[in-house]
Amino acid sequence: MKLKKFILLVLFSNIISISTVFAVGITLSGPETACHESVHEYEAVPGDTTFSNVQKMWWKCENCTIWDPLTEDWIDSIYRERDVYGHSWLWTVDVQFSQWIPGRDSAKVTVIIHNGNGYKDDFIDVTFGPPPGAAAIIMGSNVLDNCIETTNNYSLYNVGSGWSLNGTNWTGTSYLSLTNIMPTSVTVGSSSSTYSGQQTLTAPMIYKETGLSGSIQCGTENITKSISVTRDKPTYHTQEIDDLPYSPGQQVVPGSHRASAEWNGEGITSYSWQVQSGISYYTAQNVCNFTMPSSGYSSIWLYGFATNGCGITDYPARFTVTLGSGGARIASIYPNPSVNELTVETKLEKRADHPKKQELIADEILILDMLGKIVHKSSPTESVTKITKNLPKGKYIMHIKFKDEVIKRHIFIE
User: Fold this and answer.
1) Ramachandran angles phi, psi of 22, nearest 5°
2) I need a labelling partner for 4 at 20 to 30 A (CA). Which of 20, 39, 219, 394 fits?
3) Domain covering 137-230 in this structure, CATH number
4) Topology of domain 327-413, CATH
5) What's domain 235-322's architecture?
6) Per CATH, which fold does 2-128 belong to?
7) CA gap 212, 221 in Å, rounded
8) H or E stretch covering 18
C-alpha cells in the first residue's frame, strides 16, 4: 500500500513538472505595416517570465533582415542556444524591411523558442505601405451656388495616423477657384459665373512612417469630393395666410390679412408682389398685408416673387382667397392669450349681394396642439361658446368647423 502511494506521488510530481515545462509560450509584438527601408523593433515575451525553461531561440525573417549584435550585420535569421559561449537571449530585435522583391508586398517576422520538450512560436505578417483604411475624408457642402459670389469651406476630417496633406496642394477641376489654402482646410468658389455642373475637389495625401530609421514616406492617396455647381433661381416651399398653412381658394373674412411665402434658394436679394387691381395692400420682404373687401369681390389673387443672382423665380407663390357663400364667417376668440377659459363667438358678415342676415353656429370646435393631437372637441349649440379647459402652457391651433369651411386661429395658453 505504501509502495502504491509512493508511485502515485512520483507520477503526480512528474505531471506537475511536465505541465510546468510545457507552460512556456511566446508572444510577438511589433508593427503590422512598414515602409520599405524602414527599421522597427519587435519584442518576444515568453509565457514563463523567469525565462528559466528556454533552451533554444530562433528569429527568422522573410523579405526582411534582422540586426545581429554578435556579427554586427543584417541577416535573415538568428540562432541562440543556452550554455553556448557568447550567446544571450534576444527578446527584442531590430528588423529592417529593405529586401524588396518585385511582386512581394509583405514580409514575415517569426520567433521560435524550445524548452527541451517542445517548440512554441509566434509570427507577424507585415504589409508594406500605409495602414489599411482611408487617409481622410473631406467635409463640406455637396452644392456650390454659382449665381452669386458665394464660397464654401471644406476641411479634412478623420485624418489617419501618419497621413497629412502633401504640402498645401489642394486642387480643383477647372471651374473651381481655391483660396485660403491651409494644410487641413480650403475655401472654394466658382471660377466662372455662368458655369453649372459637377466639379471635383482633391486633397493629395502623403503617408510618412516614423521608426528607428527616422521618417520615411511610403504611401500616397488622393481624397476627392464631388461638388455640384448650380445656378438655381428661388423656388417657394411654404405659403401661409395669417400664419397658417394656405390652401387654394381659402375663405377669409373682410378686413386685413397677411400672406407670406418662404423660399428655397441661396442668396435671395429681393422680394416683390403683384396684387389684383383695386385691392389695398403693402409689402415687407416676403410678406404681403392686404385688405379683403366685404363687397365687390368674390375672390382676389396675389403673386409673390423672389430674386437672387440667377434671376427672378420662374414660378411665383400664387394665392387665391375667397369670401364664403352668403357672406364672410367671422370667428372671435377672447381672451387670447388665456389661462383656462376661452370664449368663441361666430357671426356672419353680410355681403351686398346677400342682404339677408343668417344665424351662424359652428358645427364643431377643435383645439390641437402643435403636434396635431386633438386636446379638445365640442359641438356648439349657440353662436357664443365658452370653453373651459386646463391645458399646459403653450401655443395651440383652434379649428372652427362649418359645413363648407374651417376657420383656423392660433390660441395661446398662459
Assistant:
1) -80, -5
2) 20
3) 2.60.40
4) Immunoglobulin-like (2.60.40)
5) Sandwich (2.60)
6) Immunoglobulin-like (2.60.40)
7) 24
8) helix 2-22
DSSP 8-state assignment for residue 21: H
Pairwise CA distance, residues 130 & 161, whole Å = 9
Kindly write down the DSSP assignment for every residue of 198-223, as one continuous string: EEEEEEEEEEEEEETTEEEEEEEEEE
- Asked if domains 2-128 and 327-413 share a fold, the reply is yes
| Domain boundaries defined on the chain | 2-128, 137-230, 235-322, 327-413
φ, ψ for residue 260, nearest 5 deg: -145, 150
CA dist., res. 412 & res. 49, Å (int): 76
User: Which residue's C-alpha cell is 403683384?
Assistant: 274
Whole-model pTM: value is 0.49
CA 176 to chain centre: 24
Judge whether 12 and 105 are in contact, CB under 8 Å.
no
Band the pLDDT of 20: cuts 50, 70, 90: very low
Whole-angstrom Cα Rg for the chain: 42
Please give the Cα distance from 338 to 388 (Å, whole number): 10
